[in-house]
Design brief:
Layout (H helix, E strand, L loop, with lengths): L2 E6 L4 H11 L7 E8 L3 E8 L2 H8 L8 E7 L14 E2 L5 E9 L2 H10 L9 H16 L3 H9 L4 E9 L5 E7 L4 E4 L4 E4 L11 E4 L4 E6 L2 E6 L4 E2 L4 E2 L15 H7 L1 H9 L3 E2 L4 E2 L8 H6 L2 E6 L1 H18 L2 E6 H4 L11 E6 L5 H12 L3 E6 L5 H5 L2 E4 L12 H21 L4 H22 L2 H9 L6 E6 L3 H16 L2 E6 L16 E6 L5 H12 L4 E7 L4 H5 L2 E5 L8 H18 L18
Parallel strand pairs: 18-19, 18-20, 20-21, 21-22, 23-24, 23-25, 25-26, 26-27
Antiparallel strand pairs: 1-4, 1-10, 2-3, 2-4, 5-6, 6-7, 7-8, 8-12, 9-10, 9-11, 11-15, 12-13, 13-14, 16-17
Length: about 625
């Protein structure tokens, strides 16, 4: 869970890498480092605990010039965050430096072998073991570095994306991956390695996505790719559809706020070319050959983590309500370890913003081995999940830099809504009239989200009154129960306030013991089939002096009379309500966190893309 950037070309390399690391800082930010090879000074490594800006300050007093560099932002796994454990790591001879994302599971046994051969270690990391293991293999047979990397990786157990640099051959970089993303940027007589495309697009939009168990060498001779069996392959160059503006703040104080306000557009982009309400059509090209299988499915299993898991819960309600298909939602991190019952013909759908979530990828591999049809819902074109699945749908949400997902959630729910509606219509469990009505309502969602965003100042004023809260409870029923969970997650992620989400009816089975005048309770109380029940739950909280914020349907006067604060959302079909009710919760969490002085884009201990187990 970190960011890799490397450069080889005609530019001064360190500024290119530092700028790239800043763009990847959302992936990990406990520490950072950069290594260069200066023709006169040799290998130079600079590492610093903290933000990339702290590393940049270290470099201000240094003088060197190099056209090759590797850099890294770290999210600690092996060893605490400090200068020593920061990457890049140097081999004992000082010849090789390496950056690494992932976990080497057998690093202890490799380390013992190396210690017996006289190697010493200064850090607690598995990465320092790996660079020295590569050095030992290279020394033992006097191999070219790329061959030493290939042979060493055949003995490595775990996940990795690596880039390695050789002091004695400062005109080549070598990268490799297994289970962790690595993309190669191909410019005019220059090459880039990065964990994703965001550090590259300023210089080139031509990229190669490295596949698992592949090794890439870039040099004055160009780009060469081989696998661990030493079989060559032709690089498949793709064009990245990403503009630089999309990864800048564009005047907003934080990426998270920008991404909340981008949701009218991101949802519209998700619907564009897929939903035609006038002609009563849903066209999901990625599922063209699988919609019939979905309609005939006896069982669907969603696998996901975090916010994507909450989107999966919404999907469960949608598929069961509309298509009458049995659905289970699994934490991907638990799925592979509990010997799940998967039968041939079951459909397993992975949901992931990045398309690189390690637990979700592992769950897919298990499901595939058991004969399931595997589909994907993800945002990143060319990601690992998009390549391993049989088919899928991209969310087209655009890059999401804020660690706490906002537009990724609504885009995922939009895609799941489209799939569920299309499946139900194909299966005949909804009428043509209901189908057309749902398409009309979906087409109106971006405009209705925009209406909610006009309430931002009102929500900010409410937030000021709850800045010093120690706990929050979020309550909802039916399709709004997953939204309550998502609201609680957003608040705890970025404000560090303890928050829990529950089905509203479960409150009296335990959580009601917590209610007093100091406990804020957020109810999602829109007019739907559970409205009267939720109103009763609100009365139970108010009877115990709880302070209630209610998300209500436009024009509701009944709830307004009994609660402390209301936030109105436009009316829509019940099954589409989560796309609207989640927006006020995102804004509430954001403003509370900002007023508490939190770093909302990079909350402590969290990273955007969890590419390790």
């Amino acid at each position: 869970m970190c960011g890799i950037v490397a450069y080889l070309g005609g530019r001064e390399s360190a500024p290119v890498v530092i700028k790239g690391l800043k763009r990847l800082e959302y992936r990990g930010y406990d520490s950072s480092g950069v290594a260069v090879v200066d023709p006169e000074q040799g290998m130079k490594i600079f590492k610093k605990k903290g933000k990339v800006a702290d590393l940049e300050n270290v470099l201000k007093n240094e003088t060197f010039y190099a056209n090759i560099a590797i850099g890294h932002t770290r999210w600690a796994t092996h060893g605490e965050p400090n200068d020593v454990n920061a990457h890049p790591h140097l081999s004992n001879s000082g010849r090789f430096s390496l950056v690494h994302n992932g976990i080497i599971e057998n690093y202890n046994s490799l380390k013992q072998v190396l210690i017996n051969k006289g190697y010493t270690f200064s850090s607690q990391t598995d990465t320092e073991v790996l660079v020295n293991f590569i050095e030992e293999v290279q020394r033992s047979g006097n191999y070219p570095l790329e061959e030493a990397v290939r042979l060493a990786l055949k003995d490595v157990i775990g996940a990795y994306a690596i880039v390695i640099m050789d002091r004695e051959n400062p005109n080549r970089l070598i990268g490799a991956r297994k289970g962790s993303p690595l993309v190669i940027g191909v410019g005019q007589d220059e090459y880039f390695f990065a964990s994703d495309a965001t550090p590259i697009i300023e210089y080139t939009k031509e990229v190669v996505y490295l596949d698992d168990l592949e090794i890439a060498v870039v040099s004055e001779n160009g780009l060469e790719i081989r696998n661990l069996q030493n079989e060559a392959s032709d690089p498949q160059i793709q064009t990245v559809d990403l503009e630089l503006e999309a990864i800048e703040k564009s005047g907003y104080d934080h990426f998270m706020l920008k991404e909340i306000f981008e949701q009218p557009r991101s949802i519209a982009d998700c619907l564009r070319g897929r939903v035609n309400a006038d002609e009563a059509l849903i066209q999901l090209g990625g599922l063209r050959d699988y919609l019939g299988k979905l309609a005939k499915a006896k069982r669907i299993v969603f696998v996901a983590c975090g916010t994507s898991w909450h989107a999966g819960l919404v999907g469960e309600y949608l598929f069961e309500e509309l298509a009458r298909i049995n659905v289970e939602v699994e934490y991907a991190s638990e799925f592979r370890y509990r010997n799940p019952i998967i039968k041939e013909g079951d459909i397993v759908i992975a949901i992931s913003q990045s398309g690189e979530t390690a637990d979700t990828l592992a769950a897919l591999e298990l499901a595939k081995a058991k004969g399931a049809i595997i589909l994907g819902v993800c945002n990143v074109v060319g990601s690992s999940i998009s390549r391993v699945t049989d088919a899928g749908v991209y969310t087209h949400a655009g890059p999401e830099i804020g660690v706490a997902s906002t537009k990724a959630f609504t885009a995922q729910v939009t895609v799941l809504s489209m799939i569920a509606i299309a499946t139900a219509h194909k299966k005949g469990t909804i009428t043509d009239e209901t189908f057309r009505r749902l398409l009309i309502e979906m087409s109106d969602i971006p405009k209705k989200v925009e209406e909610i965003l006009t309430l931002a100042d009102e929500i900010k004023d409410i937030s000021k009154l709850f800045t010093f809260a120690q706990n929050f409870i979020f309550l909802g029923r039916g399709l709004n129960f997953p939204v309550a969970l998502e609201g609680a997650l957003k608040l705890k992620e970025i404000s560090y306030i303890h928050a829990e989400g529950y089905p509203a009816a479960e409150m009296k089975h335990g959580p009601i013991a917590l209610i007093d005048e100091d406990m804020p309770v957020v109810f999602i109380a829109t007019r739907d089939s559970s409205y009267e029940k939720v109103v009763s739950n609100i009365q139970e909280v108010k009877a115990r002096k709880g302070r209630v914020i209610a998300i209500v349907s436009e024009g509701d006067t009944e709830v307004r009379k009994m609660v402390d604060f209301t936030i109105e959302v436009p009316n829509t079909h019940e099954v589409l309500q989560p796309l609207l009710t989640v927006i006020p919760l995102q804004l509430l969490s954001y403003y509370i966190a900002v007023l508490r002085g939190r770093n909302v884009d990079q909350p402590r201990n969290l990273a955007k893309s969890v590419t390790v187990e």
